[in-house]
Design a protein that fits this description.
- The protein has two domains: about 80 residues, Hypothetical Protein Yqey, Chain: A, domain1, CATH 1.10.1510.10; about 50 residues, Arc Repressor Mutant, subunit A.
- The longest helix has 24 residues.
- About 80% of the residues lie in helices and about 0% in strands.
- The radius of gyration is 18 Å and the shape is globular.
- Helix 5 crosses helix 6.
- By secondary structure, it is an all-alpha fold.
- About 20% of the residues are buried.
- The chain is built from seven helices and no strands.
Length: about 150
């Protein structure tokens, strides 16, 4: 089943269960997907929908940390509830060992020898890890590996 169809089914289930947080989060995500489809005049595939969900999770994590800093625990907990809902649509997160082996494979495939090749390595890795790990942390690991 396509990810967009999975989202629509989850929306129906949330409506039936009267789960307001889940329903609201899914509606916002579907709206973001639809907005991107309209803006770019394309139909998004699973990878693009996954990118929209990943971006929504990142936005909510940033908002939760800002609410924590402002001592707004009520709003921070709401953001975390939405993150939990969105994470149910993301694939299983990669372990450190899996990430390290993917980095090793990408470096070998591209023949990377230094920082000048970081773009090539990240270009190979991104489609493989999209939505399955934090891209900022991955970038740091690749940078450390290429500097070694």
């Amino acid at each position: 089943m396509a990810l967009i169809d999975e989202l629509k089914e989850a929306q129906k289930d949330a409506m039936r269960a009267k789960d307001k947080v889940r329903l609201g989060t899914i509606r916002m995500t579907l709206a973001a997907v639809k907005q991107r489809e309209i803006d770019e005049q394309i139909t998004l595939d699973d990878a693009a929908v996954l990118a929209v969900i990943t971006k929504a999770v990142k936005q909510r994590q940033d908002a939760a940390s800002q609410f924590d800093a402002a001592n707004r625990d009520d709003l921070a907990s709401k953001e975390r509830e939405e993150i939990a809902v969105l994470e149910t649509f993301l694939p299983q997160q990669l372990t450190d060992d899996e990430i390290n082996s993917l980095i090793d494979g990408a470096i070998a495939d591209t023949g990377a020898s230094g920082m000048q090749d970081m773009g090539k390595v990240m270009g190979v890795l991104k489609p493989k890890v999209q939505g399955r790990t934090d891209m900022g942390a991955l970038s740091g690991k690749v940078k450390a590996r290429l500097n070694a």
